[in-house]
Amino acid sequence: MLFTLRMCLMGLHFVLAGVVGVILGLCRPFNPDNSRLCARLYALPAMWFLRLRVKAEVDTLVNKSQSCVIIANHQSNYDLFVFGNVVPRRTVCIGKKSLKWVPLFGQLFWLAGNVLIDRGNAIKARKAMLTTTHTLQHEDTSIWVFPEGTRNLGEALLPFKKGAFQMAIAAGVPIIPVCVSTYIKHMRLNRWRSGDILIRSLPAIPTTGLSMEDMPRLIAQCREQMQACIDTMDRQLQVA
């Protein structure tokens, strides 16, 4: 019963937040801070409905001194709500082009200045990547990427795709990994308290002076650090 009620509330909230977000986007289209505001719009009510307790330790993310590429693990569609409260100012996201067909959310995503990539068209995808490099270097804007490319459903991290690391190296900006504990398998949405979630940002990893030849090592370094962080947070939650 509680699960059904929550899903009904979440569905209504998703529609209402989409309407408000589209209005915000139309009032100031493609403003890079729209993403942060819309993320809060989705996340704050959702966490209250779901009764998920999120503890975030993201000082390196909040206090970043320059544009950066933010990489995070991707478990489920709930990530929109879980990560929403830690998206920093002037941060846009990269998503697949098919998102634009999602009613309200797709239009909101586009108007918020996020980048839609057609993964089936290599030329258009490369052009979009070049645009993001310019954004990172000249527009005081960071880019949030899920380097796994798809949801891992609470299992170990999937192999990382190259795009985020190519952008960071090309622009010469640091990478900030953001990790969320394994929550998708432990949520109990039919209970009043649905579960605890930890979010942690790791120290920035510089890319200045790196070339594309250094990319495999950089990817391995980021993935190793993130998996270790996720494992540590999961152990903390098991003890608590």
Give a summary of the structure in a few sentences:
By secondary structure, this protein is an alpha/beta fold.
Verbal overview:
The chain has helices spanning 2-27, 34-50, 59-62, 79-82, 105-111, 122-138, 163-171, 215-239, and strands at residues 52-57, 69-72, 91-96, 115-117, 142-145, 175-180, 195-201. With 240 residues, it is α/β, with parallel strands linked by helices. It has a seven-stranded mixed β-sheet, with helices on both faces. The model has no long low-confidence stretch (mean pLDDT 90). Helices cover 45% and strands 15% of the residues. It has one domain: Glycerol-3-phosphate (1)-acyltransferase (3-Layer(aba) Sandwich), CATH 3.40.1130.
Q: What's the helix and strand layout?
A:
Layout: H1 2-27, H2 34-50, E1 52-57, H3 59-62, E2 69-72, H4 79-82, E3 91-96, H5 105-111, E4 115-117, H6 122-138, E5 142-145, H7 163-171, E6 175-180, E7 195-201, H8 215-239
Parallel strand pairs: 1-7, 2-5, 2-6, 3-4, 3-5
Antiparallel strand pairs: 6-7
